[in-house]
Automatic annotation (TrEMBL):
The protein's name in its UniProt record: ABC transporter ATP-binding protein
Gene Ontology molecular functions: ATP binding; ATP hydrolysis activity
Signal sequence, start to end: none
Keyword line: ATP-binding, Nucleotide-binding, Transport
Residue ranges of the region described as Disordered: 253-318
Protein backbone atom coordinates (compact mmCIF):
# COMPACT_ATOMS: atom_id res chain seq x y z
CA UNK A 1 0.00 0.00 0.00
CA UNK A 2 1.39 3.39 -0.96
CA UNK A 3 1.66 6.38 1.34
CA UNK A 4 0.49 9.98 0.93
CA UNK A 5 2.88 12.84 0.16
CA UNK A 6 1.64 16.19 1.48
CA UNK A 7 3.46 19.27 0.11
CA UNK A 8 2.72 22.67 1.63
CA UNK A 9 3.96 26.12 0.51
CA UNK A 10 7.15 24.72 -1.01
CA UNK A 11 9.58 27.33 -2.35
CA UNK A 12 12.96 26.68 -3.97
CA UNK A 13 15.58 28.94 -5.49
CA UNK A 14 19.22 28.68 -6.52
CA UNK A 15 20.88 31.93 -5.51
CA UNK A 16 18.73 34.72 -6.92
CA UNK A 17 17.01 32.42 -9.41
CA UNK A 18 13.55 31.42 -8.16
CA UNK A 19 12.55 27.94 -9.40
CA UNK A 20 9.00 27.84 -8.01
CA UNK A 21 7.12 29.37 -5.08
CA UNK A 22 4.33 28.30 -2.71
CA UNK A 23 3.77 24.88 -4.30
CA UNK A 24 1.08 22.96 -2.41
CA UNK A 25 -0.39 19.59 -3.38
CA UNK A 26 -1.25 16.19 -1.98
CA UNK A 27 -0.15 13.09 -3.86
CA UNK A 28 -2.79 10.54 -2.77
CA UNK A 29 -1.68 7.18 -1.41
CA UNK A 30 -1.57 4.44 -4.04
CA UNK A 31 -2.48 6.67 -6.99
CA UNK A 32 -0.60 7.50 -10.19
CA UNK A 33 0.15 11.20 -10.68
CA UNK A 34 1.85 13.02 -13.56
CA UNK A 35 3.69 16.34 -13.24
CA UNK A 36 3.96 18.32 -16.45
CA UNK A 37 5.48 21.66 -17.41
CA UNK A 38 7.55 23.38 -20.07
CA UNK A 39 11.29 22.68 -20.01
CA UNK A 40 13.08 24.52 -17.23
CA UNK A 41 10.14 24.82 -14.85
CA UNK A 42 11.78 22.74 -12.11
CA UNK A 43 10.00 19.39 -12.43
CA UNK A 44 13.14 17.36 -11.70
CA UNK A 45 14.01 19.80 -8.90
CA UNK A 46 10.62 19.01 -7.36
CA UNK A 47 11.35 15.26 -7.43
CA UNK A 48 14.75 15.80 -5.80
CA UNK A 49 13.10 17.93 -3.13
CA UNK A 50 10.45 15.28 -2.43
CA UNK A 51 13.12 12.68 -1.73
CA UNK A 52 15.29 15.05 0.31
CA UNK A 53 18.20 15.36 -2.12
CA UNK A 54 17.54 19.12 -2.19
CA UNK A 55 16.34 21.26 0.71
CA UNK A 56 13.59 23.82 -0.01
CA UNK A 57 13.92 27.43 1.07
CA UNK A 58 10.51 27.28 2.72
CA UNK A 59 7.65 24.85 3.12
CA UNK A 60 7.19 21.23 4.11
CA UNK A 61 7.07 17.74 2.59
CA UNK A 62 5.29 15.44 5.04
CA UNK A 63 5.46 11.67 4.60
CA UNK A 64 4.06 9.40 7.33
CA UNK A 65 4.17 12.26 9.82
CA UNK A 66 7.78 13.25 9.08
CA UNK A 67 8.65 16.57 7.43
CA UNK A 68 11.64 15.61 5.32
CA UNK A 69 12.41 19.29 4.69
CA UNK A 70 13.42 19.75 8.32
CA UNK A 71 14.00 16.29 9.80
CA UNK A 72 17.32 14.85 10.96
CA UNK A 73 19.60 12.95 8.58
CA UNK A 74 18.79 9.75 10.48
CA UNK A 75 15.04 10.19 9.99
CA UNK A 76 15.55 11.16 6.33
CA UNK A 77 17.57 7.98 5.77
CA UNK A 78 14.66 5.92 7.11
CA UNK A 79 12.04 7.76 5.03
CA UNK A 80 14.10 7.28 1.87
CA UNK A 81 13.67 3.54 2.26
CA UNK A 82 10.04 4.09 1.26
CA UNK A 83 11.17 5.40 -2.14
CA UNK A 84 12.17 3.84 -5.42
CA UNK A 85 13.44 6.23 -8.10
CA UNK A 86 13.78 5.76 -11.86
CA UNK A 87 16.21 8.42 -13.08
CA UNK A 88 16.15 9.84 -16.62
CA UNK A 89 19.03 7.75 -17.95
CA UNK A 90 18.56 4.77 -15.66
CA UNK A 91 21.63 5.86 -13.60
CA UNK A 92 23.32 2.48 -13.95
CA UNK A 93 26.81 1.79 -12.61
CA UNK A 94 28.75 1.34 -15.84
CA UNK A 95 31.22 -1.19 -14.44
CA UNK A 96 28.52 -3.50 -13.03
CA UNK A 97 26.36 -5.89 -15.00
CA UNK A 98 22.58 -5.50 -14.80
CA UNK A 99 22.23 -8.15 -12.12
CA UNK A 100 24.65 -6.40 -9.77
CA UNK A 101 23.08 -3.01 -10.52
CA UNK A 102 19.65 -4.29 -9.54
CA UNK A 103 21.03 -6.15 -6.50
CA UNK A 104 22.92 -3.09 -5.21
CA UNK A 105 20.14 -1.65 -2.94
CA UNK A 106 19.53 -5.07 -1.39
CA UNK A 107 23.21 -5.48 -0.56
CA UNK A 108 23.40 -1.95 0.85
CA UNK A 109 20.19 -1.83 2.89
CA UNK A 110 19.31 -5.40 3.87
CA UNK A 111 20.94 -8.45 5.43
CA UNK A 112 19.51 -10.88 2.91
CA UNK A 113 21.60 -13.84 1.84
CA UNK A 114 22.86 -13.96 -1.73
CA UNK A 115 20.33 -16.68 -2.55
CA UNK A 116 17.50 -14.48 -1.25
CA UNK A 117 18.89 -11.50 -3.17
CA UNK A 118 19.00 -13.57 -6.34
CA UNK A 119 15.37 -14.55 -5.92
CA UNK A 120 14.29 -10.90 -5.54
CA UNK A 121 16.49 -9.63 -8.38
CA UNK A 122 15.27 -12.25 -10.83
CA UNK A 123 11.65 -11.60 -9.84
CA UNK A 124 12.03 -7.87 -10.60
CA UNK A 125 13.97 -8.49 -13.82
CA UNK A 126 11.22 -10.82 -14.99
CA UNK A 127 8.69 -8.12 -14.12
CA UNK A 128 10.37 -5.65 -16.50
CA UNK A 129 11.18 -8.22 -19.19
CA UNK A 130 14.95 -8.46 -18.72
CA UNK A 131 15.46 -12.13 -17.84
CA UNK A 132 18.42 -13.36 -19.89
CA UNK A 133 20.13 -9.93 -19.93
CA UNK A 134 21.39 -9.96 -16.36
CA UNK A 135 25.06 -10.48 -17.36
CA UNK A 136 25.13 -7.55 -19.79
CA UNK A 137 26.80 -4.24 -18.97
CA UNK A 138 24.77 -1.00 -19.26
CA UNK A 139 26.89 0.07 -22.22
CA UNK A 140 25.94 -3.08 -24.12
CA UNK A 141 22.18 -2.53 -24.12
CA UNK A 142 19.69 -0.02 -25.54
CA UNK A 143 18.36 3.02 -23.73
CA UNK A 144 15.00 1.34 -23.30
CA UNK A 145 16.59 -1.67 -21.64
CA UNK A 146 18.57 0.62 -19.32
CA UNK A 147 15.32 2.31 -18.31
CA UNK A 148 13.75 -1.07 -17.51
CA UNK A 149 16.85 -2.12 -15.55
CA UNK A 150 16.64 1.14 -13.61
CA UNK A 151 13.00 0.41 -12.87
CA UNK A 152 13.85 -3.11 -11.65
CA UNK A 153 16.44 -1.60 -9.30
CA UNK A 154 13.90 0.98 -8.09
CA UNK A 155 11.52 -1.85 -7.16
CA UNK A 156 13.79 -4.31 -5.33
CA UNK A 157 13.10 -2.85 -1.88
CA UNK A 158 9.33 -3.00 -2.52
CA UNK A 159 8.92 0.78 -2.23
CA UNK A 160 5.69 2.45 -1.19
CA UNK A 161 6.50 5.50 -3.35
CA UNK A 162 7.98 5.31 -6.87
CA UNK A 163 9.24 8.45 -8.62
CA UNK A 164 9.81 8.47 -12.39
CA UNK A 165 11.98 11.28 -13.82
CA UNK A 166 11.04 11.50 -17.51
CA UNK A 167 10.86 7.72 -18.03
CA UNK A 168 9.98 8.24 -21.71
CA UNK A 169 12.99 10.46 -22.45
CA UNK A 170 14.85 9.11 -25.48
CA UNK A 171 12.34 6.34 -26.12
CA UNK A 172 10.38 5.85 -29.35
CA UNK A 173 6.54 5.91 -29.18
CA UNK A 174 6.24 2.12 -29.17
CA UNK A 175 8.63 1.67 -26.22
CA UNK A 176 6.92 4.57 -24.43
CA UNK A 177 3.59 2.76 -24.81
CA UNK A 178 5.07 -0.45 -23.38
CA UNK A 179 6.57 1.51 -20.47
CA UNK A 180 3.23 3.23 -19.78
CA UNK A 181 1.49 -0.14 -19.66
CA UNK A 182 4.19 -1.47 -17.34
CA UNK A 183 3.69 1.48 -14.95
CA UNK A 184 -0.08 0.88 -14.85
CA UNK A 185 0.41 -2.86 -14.31
CA UNK A 186 2.92 -2.22 -11.51
CA UNK A 187 0.52 0.12 -9.74
CA UNK A 188 -2.18 -2.54 -9.96
CA UNK A 189 0.17 -5.16 -8.50
CA UNK A 190 1.99 -3.26 -5.73
CA UNK A 191 -0.46 -0.38 -5.07
CA UNK A 192 2.44 2.05 -4.65
CA UNK A 193 2.11 5.83 -4.83
CA UNK A 194 3.59 6.90 -8.19
CA UNK A 195 4.66 10.33 -9.44
CA UNK A 196 5.82 10.68 -13.06
CA UNK A 197 7.58 13.72 -14.49
CA UNK A 198 7.13 13.74 -18.26
CA UNK A 199 6.69 15.88 -21.37
CA UNK A 200 4.70 13.18 -23.17
CA UNK A 201 1.15 14.44 -23.65
CA UNK A 202 -0.22 10.98 -24.52
CA UNK A 203 1.17 9.61 -21.25
CA UNK A 204 -0.43 12.47 -19.32
CA UNK A 205 -3.79 11.97 -21.03
CA UNK A 206 -4.06 8.18 -20.60
CA UNK A 207 -2.00 6.95 -17.62
CA UNK A 208 -2.50 8.98 -14.42
CA UNK A 209 -5.26 9.38 -11.89
CA UNK A 210 -4.14 12.98 -11.27
CA UNK A 211 -2.24 15.60 -13.27
CA UNK A 212 -0.25 18.67 -12.19
CA UNK A 213 1.24 21.47 -14.27
CA UNK A 214 4.20 23.62 -13.23
CA UNK A 215 4.36 26.93 -15.09
CA UNK A 216 5.88 30.37 -14.55
CA UNK A 217 7.38 29.52 -11.14
CA UNK A 218 4.18 28.14 -9.62
CA UNK A 219 1.85 25.15 -9.70
CA UNK A 220 -0.80 26.19 -12.21
CA UNK A 221 -3.18 23.33 -11.35
CA UNK A 222 -3.22 19.89 -9.75
CA UNK A 223 -6.16 17.51 -9.61
CA UNK A 224 -8.03 14.57 -11.16
CA UNK A 225 -7.18 13.73 -14.78
CA UNK A 226 -10.63 14.67 -16.09
CA UNK A 227 -10.51 18.04 -14.36
CA UNK A 228 -7.39 19.10 -16.23
CA UNK A 229 -8.35 17.51 -19.55
CA UNK A 230 -11.61 19.50 -19.55
CA UNK A 231 -10.05 22.70 -18.19
CA UNK A 232 -10.47 26.05 -19.95
CA UNK A 233 -7.49 27.49 -18.04
CA UNK A 234 -5.34 28.83 -20.94
CA UNK A 235 -1.95 27.37 -19.94
CA UNK A 236 -3.44 24.00 -18.94
CA UNK A 237 -5.52 23.78 -22.09
CA UNK A 238 -2.58 24.75 -24.31
CA UNK A 239 -0.08 22.31 -22.82
CA UNK A 240 -2.31 19.25 -22.40
CA UNK A 241 -3.76 19.60 -25.87
CA UNK A 242 -0.51 20.52 -27.67
CA UNK A 243 -1.85 23.81 -29.01
CA UNK A 244 0.20 26.78 -30.25
CA UNK A 245 -2.31 29.42 -29.15
CA UNK A 246 -1.87 30.32 -25.49
CA UNK A 247 0.60 31.84 -23.02
CA UNK A 248 3.44 29.31 -23.56
CA UNK A 249 5.99 30.18 -26.23
CA UNK A 250 9.40 28.93 -27.35
CA UNK A 251 10.78 30.58 -24.26
CA UNK A 252 8.56 29.67 -21.32
CA UNK A 253 6.29 32.71 -21.69
CA UNK A 254 5.22 34.51 -24.85
CA UNK A 255 6.00 38.21 -24.95
CA UNK A 256 3.33 40.91 -25.13
CA UNK A 257 3.59 41.27 -28.92
CA UNK A 258 3.03 37.53 -29.48
CA UNK A 259 0.02 37.52 -27.18
CA UNK A 260 -1.39 40.63 -28.85
CA UNK A 261 -1.10 39.02 -32.30
CA UNK A 262 -3.25 36.09 -31.08
CA UNK A 263 -6.14 38.28 -29.96
CA UNK A 264 -9.33 37.37 -31.76
CA UNK A 265 -8.06 33.97 -32.85
CA UNK A 266 -10.47 31.18 -32.06
CA UNK A 267 -9.02 28.44 -29.89
CA UNK A 268 -9.29 24.92 -31.32
CA UNK A 269 -11.99 22.87 -29.56
CA UNK A 270 -10.90 20.65 -26.70
CA UNK A 271 -10.20 17.12 -27.97
CA UNK A 272 -12.15 14.19 -26.52
CA UNK A 273 -10.95 12.82 -23.19
CA UNK A 274 -9.55 9.32 -23.82
CA UNK A 275 -10.21 6.27 -21.74
CA UNK A 276 -7.65 5.72 -19.00
CA UNK A 277 -5.23 2.88 -19.62
CA UNK A 278 -6.38 -0.36 -17.97
CA UNK A 279 -4.05 -2.96 -16.43
CA UNK A 280 -3.16 -5.80 -18.78
CA UNK A 281 -5.34 -8.23 -16.84
CA UNK A 282 -8.38 -6.01 -17.40
CA UNK A 283 -9.08 -5.61 -13.67
CA UNK A 284 -9.41 -1.97 -12.59
CA UNK A 285 -6.82 -0.58 -10.19
CA UNK A 286 -7.99 0.43 -6.70
CA UNK A 287 -7.59 4.14 -7.48
CA UNK A 288 -9.04 3.98 -10.99
CA UNK A 289 -12.21 6.05 -11.40
CA UNK A 290 -15.20 5.28 -13.57
CA UNK A 291 -14.89 7.12 -16.91
CA UNK A 292 -16.70 10.47 -16.77
CA UNK A 293 -17.33 10.26 -13.00
CA UNK A 294 -15.49 13.47 -12.11
CA UNK A 295 -17.25 15.36 -14.91
CA UNK A 296 -20.70 14.16 -13.75
CA UNK A 297 -20.00 14.91 -10.10
CA UNK A 298 -18.85 18.43 -10.92
CA UNK A 299 -21.41 19.30 -13.59
CA UNK A 300 -18.81 19.50 -16.37
CA UNK A 301 -19.75 18.53 -19.91
CA UNK A 302 -16.75 16.71 -21.43
CA UNK A 303 -15.75 17.38 -25.04
CA UNK A 304 -17.80 15.43 -27.64
CA UNK A 305 -16.52 11.90 -28.21
CA UNK A 306 -14.93 11.60 -24.75
CA UNK A 307 -14.50 8.15 -23.19
CA UNK A 308 -15.05 6.34 -26.49
CA UNK A 309 -13.21 3.03 -26.21
CA UNK A 310 -12.50 3.10 -29.94
CA UNK A 311 -11.08 6.62 -29.91
CA UNK A 312 -7.67 6.71 -31.60
CA UNK A 313 -4.78 8.03 -29.57
CA UNK A 314 -2.32 7.75 -32.44
CA UNK A 315 0.03 10.70 -33.03
CA UNK A 316 -1.90 13.63 -34.43
CA UNK A 317 -5.22 12.43 -33.00
CA UNK A 318 -5.49 15.61 -30.95
Amino acid sequence: MGVEIKVQDLTKSFGRSLIWKDVSLTVPAGEICVMLGPSGTGKSVLLKTLIGLLKPDYGSVVIEGTDIASCSEKDLYEIRKLFGVLFQDGAMFGSMNLYDNVAFPLREHTRKTESDIRAVVMEKMELVGLVGAEDKLPGEISGGMRKRAGLARALVLDPEIVLFDEPDSGLDPVRTSFLNQLIVDLNAQIDATMLIVTHDVNTARTVPDNIGLLYHKHLAMFGPREMLLSSEEPVVRQFLNAQMIGPIGMSEEKDADELESEKGQELPPLPPIPMQLDPSNGIHRRSQREPGLWCRENGVTPPPGSFDENMSMAPGAF
